């Protein structure tokens, strides 16, 4: 038999197997995602009707590490917990809301029974956050908002303002309520070491410190920031 024919046949079979495997893996991942979304939808509907979480839905562990380790693997289901120990849908939404920074205009997706940690319903929170303007706060106010995350920004000597991951802040004025030039003036006039700001829209309490380095020096240490 012609060796070239054999090689072509084997290569074709290998490519067909790989393509089929990748297709099935992708379909499996999409199926798992749909199942998770359906479970959340059912829980939300149950919460709307009864005001209580659905105790029949076990907690599902679908961490990114598990999905990366085996894209075709089904979600790992923990042992069902007693009803009184289940995290309620409302508690879950509060946690996700705080961790994922839901923008106020996107809060319509939350159920009508949603009440935040301040005791506001979703409409009240939306109005408060959309109408509030970012601005400076006193050190004593920093960290006092119950639903805000505390973050540390850095102002480098070349006037570059960066977030806590050393990514440049693109919309400075809409983030802290003043321009970089104003920020530099405040540091100079008040001879301050640290300044504090609050952004209700993004639910952040921001601590800003100065750094004598230039941002280009940081990029030399962290070249991945250029990507």
Describe this structure in words.
This protein has 227 residues and is of the alpha+beta class. The chain has helices at residues 3-50, 64-69, 89-100, 122-131, 172-176, 180-190, 215-221, and strands at 60-61, 76-77, 135-136, 149-156, 161-162, 194-199, 204-211. The strands form 2 sheets. It has a 5-stranded mixed β-sheet with strand order 3-6-7-4-5. Strand 6 and strand 7 form a beta hairpin.
Helix and strand arrangement:
Layout: H1 3-50, E1 60-61, H2 64-69, E2 76-77, H3 89-100, H4 122-131, E3 135-136, E4 149-156, E5 161-162, H5 172-176, H6 180-190, E6 194-199, E7 204-211, H7 215-221
Parallel strand pairs: 4-7
Antiparallel strand pairs: 1-2, 3-6, 4-5, 6-7
Give the key terms.
single chain, 227 residues, alpha+beta, five-stranded mixed β-sheet, two-stranded antiparallel ribbon, 7 helices, 7 strands, 13% strand
- Proportion of residues in helical segments: 40-55%
Mean pLDDT: 74
CA gyration radius, whole angstroms:
25 Å
Main beta sheet: strand number and arrangement? 5 strands, mixed
DSSP summary, beta strand count? 7
Question: Class by helix and strand content?
Answer: alpha+beta
* Ends apart, CA distance between termini: 52 Å
Point out poorly predicted stretches.
21-26, 53-78
């Amino acid at each position: 038999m012609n060796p070239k024919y054999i090689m072509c046949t084997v290569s074709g079979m290998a490519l067909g197997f790989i393509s089929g495997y990748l297709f099935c893996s992708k379909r499996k991942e999409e199926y798992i995602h749909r199942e998770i979304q359906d479970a959340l939808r059912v829980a939300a509907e149950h919460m709307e009707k009864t005001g209580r979480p659905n105790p029949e839905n076990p907690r599902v562990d679908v961490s990114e590490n598990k999905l990366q380790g085996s894209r075709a693997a089904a979600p790992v289901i923990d042992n069902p917990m007693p009803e009184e120990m289940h995290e309620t849908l409302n508690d879950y939404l509060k946690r996700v809301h705080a961790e994922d920074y839901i923008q106020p205009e996107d809060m319509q997706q939350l159920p009508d029974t949603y009440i935040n940690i301040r005791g506001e319903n979703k409409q009240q929170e939306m109005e408060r956050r959309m109408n509030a303007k970012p601005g400076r706060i006193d050190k004593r106010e920093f960290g006092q908002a119950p639903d805000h995350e505390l973050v540390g920004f850095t102002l480098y000597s070349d006037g570059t303002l960066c977030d806590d991951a050393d990514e440049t802040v693109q919309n400075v004025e809409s983030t802290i309520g003043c321009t970089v030039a104003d920020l530099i003036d405040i540091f100079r006039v008040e001879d301050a070491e640290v300044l504090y700001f609050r952004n209700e829209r993004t639910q952040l309490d921001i601590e800003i410190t100065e750094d004598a380095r230039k941002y280009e020096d940081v990029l030399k240490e962290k070249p991945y920031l250029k990507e």
